[in-house]
Every structure is written in structure tokens, then in C-alpha cells.
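[Automated response] Your request has been received and processed.

Submitted sequence:
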Amino acid sequence: MRISPQLGRQWKVLRLLDCSRVGYTINELVRETEVSEKTVRRDLQVLQTEFSICEVSHDGVKRWQMPPLGKQLGFQLTELMAMHLFQQFLDPLAGTPFWEGSRSVFQKVKGALGDSGARYLQQMSTALTSTSVGAGDYEDRGGVIDRLLLSMEENRVVTAAYRSSQRPTAESRRLHPLGMVHHRGSLYLIAWSVHHGEVRNFKIDRMESADLQQEQFEPPEAFDLSDWLSKCFGVWRTGSEDLQTIRIQFTAECARYVQESTWHESQHLESQPDGSLIATFHLPDTQEIKRWIMSFGPGAQALAPAALVNEIQQELKQMLEGYGC
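Generated structure:
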């Protein structure tokens, strides 16, 4: 859905009044909104009812102003409204400490807006939504996440029961938690794995329990979570630091989609005369980008390195055999 012209215009008026110390005259609002005086007055009547905006006279000039509804929280009214609109994007984290904390904030925002303001905001929220395809469910993992956060705060070892995608049952893992990442609807723990002797990611959806130990650990020297993730095409990687040059050719039909986004900081996109696109990346691992390439079907072809091309060829052969081809 899209915001109606009326709601969009009223939102603009709110923003104007909210950001002004002296307010706006009717004529100034007419110029800013590019509608008639009658329409502006009708909008102001609605906003006066919903948000108690008021008309004041100073030196014989009448101006409309916004009351300081958000001052007790240090926010402007439209900032509070925007914050409330975005609460839906945190719903995939339901059950986590992040979500519980945000709910408290949103309740305060709702209280500052008042019933009429909240009702008005509900009309705006129908124009903004998010999908939940593939999102994790953390309703039953609040305790696990709490203990992982405490572990990171106090550098304490965690013993986790973890069920990897390759194993049907959970195995015990001693972990040194270093950070947490929200990626494609799921939460991942980035931790030093004592078993593997390197930093790895662990999908929290697969973590059945996490027991906090008294034993403390020393984080790897100079470890930086942002730097570690910068070498990932998402969150998956091994401990390898040797970068590989990955080249992919996208058909003209897929080229625009690829060009619309930043997929990795190392990307270099080169348009071809036939409308296709060659994308180059520099990564230490190819596992996650391989899945991305294959998700385009015939719209993408790996060109290098040779090992990646061979892996995709083998997986395509297995797929064809599964379909009896």
C-alpha cells in the first residue's frame, strides 16, 4: 500500500512545525505544501485534534506551532512517530532482550503521542511493512541470548549444545563469544570455537542451550567484529585470510538487480556491451557467495576461480540427477 496524498501532506506539515521554533503562518504552509489555503486549514484542523497543535499570535502575526510533546524524552514529535513506525522491523527478534527493551521504548512513545496520535499513526503504518520470509523465531531463546550477552560482557566461557546443519543431534561446544549479528532474519553468534581452533559463526536458532561458566577467556588479540565480517559474503567464513578473486557474469535481465545494491565492500561491477554485467569480489571463502550465484539460476555464471566453477558444476549435476535427468 502507499500513503494517501492527504496523510503524506499532513506528515509534511507535522515535520515543518516540528522543526520550527517560531512556527508557520497559513501562507507559508500554502507555499510549502503547494495546495490551497482551504486544504491547509482542513489539514491543520485534523492535526489540531490529533496532536494539539495550536495557533498563536506574536506581534500581530498568527502562526501555527507544535507543542513540546516529546521534550521529556529529548525527541521531536515526528521523531517519536518514526520510531514507533519502525517497531515492526524488530518483531523478528521477539523474545530477545533487544525486543523486550524496544517494547518498553515504544510503550513510552505511545504514551507521549496519546490515544489520538497513536490512532493517526496507525493509518501511516499501513503503508510500511516488512516481510518475514526465513525469519528466525526467538520466543524460546531469550535465556540463551541473555547468557551469551553476559558472556561477552564478562569474557566468560560458554558451553553450548549446538546442532549444526550437518548433524541430526546437538553436540557440546566450548565457545568464547565475541559478537552477535542479525543477518537475513536470523541471529548469529560470532565466537572462538575451542573445538575448531578458530573464530566461527553459530546460528542461534540451532543453539539448544548455553551454560555460562566461571572460567574466563582472553579475546583474540586485535579481533574486530566489523573487520571479521568485512571478509564475509554475509556471515559465513573459515579462518582463512587468503583472498580469492571471484568473477561472475550476470545476464542483462539480472544486471540491473545486481547493480541496485552493495553486496560487499570489495565488489567491482563492469557493464558489458551486450547489457550483461561482470561482477568481481575478493573473499577468502566461496561457500556463501556460491549459494548466492546459484540463486540466480541461468541468470548468473561463475567465471573464476576454477575450483568454484567446478563446485557449481558438480552441484548442478547432482540436482539434475535428483530430477531424473
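Summary generated for your ticket: DSSP finds ten helices and eleven strands in the chain. The longest strand covers residues 171-183.
If you did not submit this request, please reply to this message.
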